[in-house]
Give the backbone structure.
Amino acid sequence: MQPKFSPLTPKFPHLLHGGDYNPEQWLDHPEILDQDIALFQKAHINCVSLGIFSWANLEPQQDYFTFDWLDRIIDQLYQNGIYTILATPSGARPQWLAQKYPEVLRVNADGTKNLFGARHNHCYTSPAYRERVRIIDTRLAERYANHPAVILWHISNEFGGECHCELCQVAFRTWVQKKYGTLDALNRAWWAHFWSHTYTDWSQIHSPSPLGETSIHGLVLDWRRFVTQQTIDFMRTEIDAVKAVNSDIPVTTNMMTHYTYELNYYKFRDALDVISWDNYPEWHKPNSQIWAAESCSMTHDMMRSIQKKPFLMMECTPNTTNWHPVSKLKKPGMHKLSVLNAIAHGADSGQYFQLRQSRGSCEKFHSAVISHIGTEHTRTFREVAQVGAELERLSDLIYNSRTPVQVAIIHDVENKWALDQCRGPRNAGIDYFGAVQNNYRYFWENGINIDLVDSEYDLDGYRLVIVPMLYLFRAGIQEKLRQFVAQGGTLVTTCFTGVVDENDLCFLGEATEEKLSDVMGFWVEEIDGLFDGEENHMTWQNQRYRLYELCEIVHPTTCEVLATYESDFYQDMPALTRNRFGKGVAYHLCATAESRFFLDFYDMLTRQLGLERAMQTTVPYGVSLTWRETAQGQKLIFAQNFSAETKHLPLDQAYTDLLNDTTEHGICTLAPYTCKIVTPQQYS
Ligand code: GAL
């Protein structure tokens, strides 16, 4: 029997169904609030996120607080069975604050200072900003942290971006000085003698800028690390303020797919009680519907992996998103499918941006549960209400269930930063996210749960670890991977792995432990960048595969060669290798390969390792299977059809359809854009 995680909050240990609600936009329409609450109930909304951008309404002038409107709303919602996720308002500041304390406004990398406007337009270092945020957060906590309705703190909103003001420069210099201790160590780590960029005084350190320094890769990497650290530091001051009043209310901050490579989200894991994120795929884009489903599933898996426990989908759109190039409507069924997809991958919620549509400003055409029409008589409302009813019905079974995993991909944000600036074999583009997704695809398509962790995570419990293009080896990763293989694990690495250390300095020598040559059984001599459209090939197990982008030229020491290059001057040299090391085995793909190779290759490994699958079946293209497991060991399988065609899934045994209470056996029919949640019949 698997241990059950303690619930996020004992106040409401259920799947959450709700979203961002901005009643401060409607304070002069009191009738709207009453209507909204009645509609929320019809839509089975059990929580709302309040106060996210409400600072100007909470503190219209410095130190003059107006909480009465929020009091009324929280109370009224609670009396109607709806809980509150309360935000700190630091994501956007009031005009008066920026006017009185100009230091709070951001400075760009080129030194220009922003005017007031937009949101997230503030300096995280500014003492004035931190102090005003601390004051408003404390006041909010004093007023609401002991309110029975408040179940979670939503700290700020989608932290992101960076500031290059003088306060940030000083903070960066202090951070760098603490890290390196001496200028000599710094100059060595950053290879600063190159082009005579040697630092002779700490005051010479400046953030990377298009008008200044970008050629020192160690500086750029450290700046990105600093930005993440400074963001977390700012967030922690907010967390401290609210926890000081009542430490029992858990905290989260909503992350954003598009910032996955801006901030290193893995570093947030210890600061938060639960991970949450905002999910906005481009559904129904021609020829990429399945790709969108796969990539957002991969991000769900990443979010679950950060704390290796259930997470929240804090936002998704009930219908159309108004900032994509084309604001496509979700086709019937797609909304429910997208919420169940999040839950399939470990989310304990389906939450929306937004509950009521804005009347003006730049989000007025973003969809909402309650549209400008203002009634329940819309397709969007009906679909949302249906989702709510079903989550309510399945909550006891699904809430807090775990995701058993035997496979991990190492997906490392610092590696992405280093690859982006490497000026190496292909400046025309090296697609790191694509490399990760190519390795992810087989597992997503074949009902095998998978984690995405970064280089700092331990690898206990995994049977297969995949390391796509891990160009940057952070200290300690070599020993972790070595031990993993030595003790019987299966490791797969792909080209351009183990090239630089954590300071972005190239490893020296031929076959060295630093490069993991002992585990891999070869050494790399050169790497060829291929032009767009140029290709090589390899044949493995009688199948010929296209290779493109990058081709490494490697020399075996102890490895076997499983496939060789078909052409060019490195014809007949290794393209795919296998090395037995200790009790385990390490495979290496020397080039970027077409997706089909990964599907065949991981099929072989899955059979060989006997990896657990959602069910023993052949999954039709466009369908994805994922499963969660209850504390009693009951398997909850989510069969999701993301395609526009009906799909037929052969079943390996009889299942109970948990949404309809029917038996499924033989062939399970999945209509377009639908999901069935089934459990093996012995449990029902
Ligand atoms: C999110 C953001 C929300 C809203 C939404 C619109 O990224 O957190 O406040 O702007 O996008 O899709």
Q: What stands out?
A: The pocket of beta-D-galactopyranose is lined by residues 157-158, 256, 278, 280, 315, 321, 353, 363, 366 (CB under 6 Å).
